[in-house]
Every structure is written in C-alpha cells, then in structure tokens.
Amino acid sequence: MLVIVMLIVTIAIWLLLMPVVPAIASATLHRFHLRTPSFAAWAMQFPIPAMYNFANRYKVEADQVSLESSPEMVPLDGRMVNHFPARIFTFADGRYLHLRHGEDRWLTIESSYRGQGLRTRFHAEPAEGFGFDLHRLDGKPETQ
Which domain holds residue 45? Predict the structure, then answer.
C-alpha cells in the first residue's frame, strides 16, 4: 500500500512541476516522440498520465520531404492528436489507415509546450514479407 501511495505522490509532483521545470517538460516531449535516451528512462515515465499535455500535430506524406524544405518549428500544417503522436504509425487504426497499401510513408510529428517544441520525422518502409520497418530520422529540439 505504501509503495502505491508513494508512486501516486511521485507522479503528482512530476505533473505539478512540469509547467515550471523545463527539464521535466523536455523529458515528456521526448517520451511522446519515442526519443527517450534509454528504455529505462522511458519505463520510469510509463505510469505518468499522457493525455492532453501538449499541442501535438502530425502529417503523413507519401513523398519524402527533406528537413531542409520543412524548417524546424515552422507550424506544421497537419492534424491534431491528443497524446503520443507517433502512435499514428505504431497503433491500431492509424497503422491500418496509413500503411495498408504497403508503400513508403513519412510521418512528421510536432509537439509544443510552454516555449519548448520538438519535431521528429519517421520513415515507414515496407519490410520483406510483412509489416514495416520504422526509422526515426534526425531531428532536434527547438525553442519557439
């Protein structure tokens, strides 16, 4: 019982500090973009609720667009999603909707929160046989 209470208190403190501690917001942005430096760091954040934290946008494209032609943190002309914007390719109906034809697709996701922002691009490449290989392309955090 004490462990559960301590976990709830820790999560509450994390969430209360997020608006005033940029490192906490940055760690959460990286979690949303599948860019956490290690699995252990990601797993430690797993119990923290993820709904409605940031402004998250995504755009799926059939043609590769270079990062140079889409500068960092220029507002992304895409759709909004509540949380974990990378789930557009990694989860259920989004995976089916965008990847069912077995063709290359590029996903750009962007999240922002209190002056911090992160844009990440992914390439979904058909795998031999069945499925896709998802490659995260380079991107970097930016301040708005």
Answer: 2-136
Residues 32 and 28: their CA atoms lie apart, in Å, by 6
The DSSP bridge pattern shows strands 105-113 and 132-137 to be unpaired
Using CA atoms of 55, 17, 51, 110 in order, give the dihedral in degrees to the nearest 10: 30
Alpha carbon distance 88, 96 (integer Å): 9
Residues near 112 by beta carbon (within 8 Å), at least 6 away in sequence: 54, 55, 73, 118, 144
pTM: 0.77
Q: How far is CA 111 from CA 9, 83, 86, 99, 138, in A?
A: 26, 9, 11, 23, 16
37: helix, coil or strand? coil
Instruction: State how far Cα 22 lies from the chain centre.
Output: 17
pLDDT in tens, 114-137: 889 899 999 998 888 778 888 888
Task: Give the Cα separation of 54 and 28 in Å (integer).
Answer: 9
Residue 141 maps to a domain: no
Is position 143 within any domain?
Answer: no
Any domain includes 142 = no
